[in-house]
Amino acid sequence: MGLRSIAAWTLILVAAGCAQVPAPCPCPKPGPAADARYEAVGFAALPGWRTAPVAASLPAFVAGCARVPEGHALQQACAAARLLPAGDDAAARDFFEQAFVAYAIVAPDGARDGLVTGYYEPVLEGSRSRSARHAHPVYGVPDDLVVVDLAGQYPELRGMRLRGRLNGRRLQPYFSRGEIDERNGSFSAPVIAWVADPIDLFFLQIQGSGQIRLDSGERIRVGFAEQNGHPYRSLGRHLVERGEMPLEQASMQGIKAWAAANPERLKEALGHNASYVFFRELPAVDGPIGAQGVALEAGYSIAVDPRHVPLGAPVFLATTYPLSEAPLERLVTAQDTGGAIRGAVRADFFWGSGAEAGELAGRMRQTGRLWILWPRGATLPRPLP
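Predicted structure:
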């Protein structure tokens, strides 16, 4: 199959960021991979179901219905959901109980508990023009970045891309983060905006989308467009391994504090992660666009592994608030994916936009359980080939 030669190149999943802008396509229908299981349960088994504000969960689900294609298992439920009265918890709860079956998601090893993290949409200060204050570029896609869809030659590699640049007739790895940063402003890519803080730009790339508040007062939204093909390496782990901070401080907040205290060492530290994300400017909608192709809703959208949870599906989440034992139990909708979101019982909770959402997202690393709600009488989703 030539896989040995392919392995010489950096392979990376399409879902390289938390909130990408997808090409128009039908809702994915991936299902339980690696023998993960769905176990039917009664709604009474969902912690806090009887008291959860279910009506507040409807807007996210209905928004996702716009991406549900003709004949999809969710189509009939979507039509009924659009007719429900706003703000009526009893009506919403009855709708989900009548239209869906709840299934506990169980990992291949039998685990029912998994990791729940958080993400958010950062808001950066920036300008359309470079200045002493705004000196760090938010790049669009470089003209010389070559992206090869491997599925055309190897169907078993569907969803994977090979990225590089041409040197004559040969494809070689694309520039690393360090090489791109060395070209600061003279790099062969369009500049969408210039921002003030390099560590904020770094976290914008990790989140995959964000807003930039321009000095003119205008706000623009940017989202993931492409990636340079280098694998992601954790900056927090790197700093821990170098003895710069203890593991418990390796959060976004801890890394930003380290960066503020060590500005002369920041460039070298950032270069440890050779991965680099390029952006596109997005329409001004109500929220960042997730992988399902709709605006994410703060507190009611999650990123999942689409091999196990189809995008658009309602999911009941039972976890706790960051750094707390207080329960966070609510119905959310699977509307996004992420490069780090891998596994059956795995979710990334969208907290919203701005600094407060960032504080919550940066501290969230909780244990949780997931139940997928799937239409009554519908065949459970099939795994990707």
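Summary: The radius of gyration is 21 Å.
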